């Protein structure tokens, strides 16, 4: 596996235990080709094995967050099997990203189009630049989403709205994206990344197990039945009870009351 310092299309750094992953194929609007895919898979694996407490996904020096698949590369996919293999590889990348046990924030600082829009969806939280848009444009080139986008979009905004966005292939401006729950917040260009970093720093000093428990509980609660979700909460609550912070905070509270 390559280390992040050897990557061609990705810049990777850490800030206060927070990983920052920047897509940086600027001359091609961060279009995804095969080499880019390999790097994405490697960097997610690297993050999974590291001790960072959150990850921010963003881009460098461009008004396009990501434009989807690289046309030259996509033109080389001639057969059903070619398309299926590429789709399967991207599904693996997106699933590995989604399955990171630390919180992930996507700072979408430019337009996210087609596959570029799909890349934002595995993140736990999305902040969008106020003058940018998201567009599920796959229909315009005669295909469906291929990187897990439909499933995730339906789960985010509901079946009817997702189908509308996929069939219309319209540009979703920042205000609408927030209104329908596609993004959490919208910020001006100058403060977008700072807001993402500020959000992560809010919990970056916490015990990493507490962070992982909170994410796991929120994530699993989407899929579990009520009884299973309550059992998971009891178990993770009891485990977090023994981490040490609770005892310290309670002692501080008692001391203040005296």
What is the CATH level 1 assignment of the largest domain? Alpha Beta
How many strands, which pairing sense, and closed or not: the largest β-sheet? 6 strands, mixed
H/E element order: EEHEEHHEEHEEHHEHEHHHH
| Binned strand content | 15-25%
Strand order of the largest sheet: 1-2-3-5-7-10
Cα gyration radius (Å): 20 Å
Name the overall outline.
globular
Helix content: 40-55%
Mean pLDDT: 94
- How many structural domains does the protein architecture include? 2
Give the helix tally: 11
The CATH superfamily label of the largest domain reads: 2-enoyl-CoA Hydratase, Chain A, domain 1
Low-confidence stretches: none
The CATH architecture of the largest domain can be given as: Alpha-Beta Complex
- The beta-strand count equals 10
Strand pairing plus helix content: what structural class? alpha/beta
C-alpha end-to-end distance: 56 Å
CATH fold group of the largest domain: 2-enoyl-CoA Hydratase, Chain A, domain 1
């Amino acid at each position: 596996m390559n280390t992040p310092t050897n990557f061609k299309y990705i810049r990777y750094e850490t800030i206060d235990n927070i990983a920052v992953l920047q897509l940086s194929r600027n001359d091609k609007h961060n279009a995804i080709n095969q080499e880019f895919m390999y790097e994405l898979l490697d960097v997610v694996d690297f993050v999974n094995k590291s001790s960072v407490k959150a990850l921010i996904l963003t881009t460098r020096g461009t008004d396009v967050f990501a434009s989807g698949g690289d046309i030259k590369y996509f033109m080389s996919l001639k057969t059903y099997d070619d398309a299926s293999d590429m789709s399967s590889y991207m599904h693996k990348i997106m699933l590995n990203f989604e399955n990171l046990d630390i919180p992930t924030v996507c700072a979408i600082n430019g337009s996210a189009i087609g596959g570029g829009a799909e890349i934002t969806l595995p993140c736990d939280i999305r902040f969008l630049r106020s003058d940018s848009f998201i567009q599920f444009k796959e229909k315009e080139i005669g295909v469906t989403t291929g990187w897990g986008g439909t499933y995730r979009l339906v789960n985010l905004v509901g079946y009817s709205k997702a189908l509308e966005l996929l069939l219309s292939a319209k540009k979703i401006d920042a205000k609408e994206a927030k209104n329908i729950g596609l993004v959490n917040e919208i910020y001006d260009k100058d403060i977008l990344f700072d807001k993402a970093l500020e959000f992560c720093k809010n919990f970056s000093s916490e015990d990493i197990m507490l962070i992982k428990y909170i994410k796991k509980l929120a994530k699993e609660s989407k899929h579990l039945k009520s009884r299973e979700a309550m059992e998971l909460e009891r178990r993770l609550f009891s485990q977090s009870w023994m981490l040490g912070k609770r005892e310290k905070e309670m002692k501080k509270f008692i001391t203040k009351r005296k």
